[in-house]
Amino acid sequence: MDAKEISKAVIKRLPRYYRYLGELLEENVERISSNDLSKKMKVTASQIRQDLNNFGGFGQQGYGYNVKYLYTEIGKILGLDVQHPMIILGAGNLGQALANYVDFEKRGFKLVGIFDVNPVLEGMAVRGIEIQMLSDLPLFLRENLVEIAILTLPKNRAKEMANILIENGVKAIWNFAHVDLDTPDDVIVENVHLSESLMTLSYNLSQYRQEHVEK
């Protein structure tokens, strides 16, 4: 089935399925029903079956889902069965925190380079990878395969660096910069606006308080 026919809501739930199934594997659970999975996911069993039917179903009536098989198949759907070389642009607190997140490698995301503009950081190593200067980025991209770039730069540098990434064939950008990037249709951008997420949390907290005050 054409991936474009799959709704964004379904795609957004796939990593959650993958995470919960991984936890079940660690607990040595071999199979699980859609009803039991729904309790962990807080999604209805019917919704789970509908979601998975978009990709073939994977379950057997009266048996449920083989946890290891479903975990593996969802991993393939998410593209986690192949390695994705990635770089980080911006070696400040956030950039270094992401570089130190070891679970990326467990999922097939291999960090191959870290770049910054601050000369004080040049040559410093984060988990064995030396920080290079942004001026070295074009040459690095020409000499190394890079699929994903993580942007943790100030917004005044983000657009310039995004253009360099695009010109050198990078097709996926995970954007933490506080700016929307104008990219070609064949370049995929996932924006992460931390402040917006925090404001959403604040709104939900305010709503919760109002509801309980009214009661």
* Count of the separate structural domains: 2
Share of helix among residues?
40-55%
How many individual helices? 9
What portion of residues belong to β-strands? 15-25%
- Parts with pLDDT < 50 across at least 5 consecutive residues: none
CATH topology (level 3) name of the largest domain: Rossmann fold
Alpha-carbon Rg, integer: 21 Å
What can be said about the biggest beta sheet?
7 strands, mixed
Widest sheet: strand ordering:
5-6-4-3-7-8-9
Instruction: Output the structural class.
Output: alpha/beta
Give the second-level CATH assignment, the architecture of the largest domain.
Answer: 3-Layer(aba) Sandwich
Overall geometry: globular
**CATH class term of the largest domain:** Alpha Beta
The total beta strand count reads 9
Which short descriptors sum up this protein?
2 domains, Rossmann fold, alpha/beta, 46% helix, two-stranded antiparallel ribbon, single chain, 215 residues, 7-stranded mixed beta sheet, 9 helices, Arc Repressor Mutant, subunit A
In short:
The chain is 46% helix and 17% strand. By secondary structure, it is an alpha/beta fold.
